[in-house]
Design a protein that fits this description.
mainly alpha
């Protein structure tokens, strides 16, 4: 069972299936965020449908790209054989 999961995430022949699963999960999260009732909010964007899902997704993507940029251009990352 675990080998099937590892093969699903590791092999390139499942790339299209993984991408479709990612899109399906993103759509489900947006739909779930739209269905949540918002009784009170502090700002106007708290009442926008799918705001939380969109903001969370964009924030995660930005964190990934900024951390990669800091690691590569900021010379924080070391080579694999740094200690050899």
């Amino acid at each position: 069972m675990i080998s099937k999961i590892i093969n699903f995430f590791g092999e390139s022949k499942f790339q299209k299936t993984r991408f479709r699963a990612l899109i399906a999960v993103l759509i489900l999260v947006v739909i779930a965020d739209i269905l949540v009732t918002r009784d009170h909010g502090d700002f106007f964007w708290d009442y926008l449908p799918a705001w939380s899902a969109g903001f969370g997704f964009v924030s995660c993507v930005l964190i990934i790209f900024v951390s990669k940029a800091i690691g590569h251009q900021g010379r924080i990352m070391q080579d694999e054989d740094y200690y050899d």
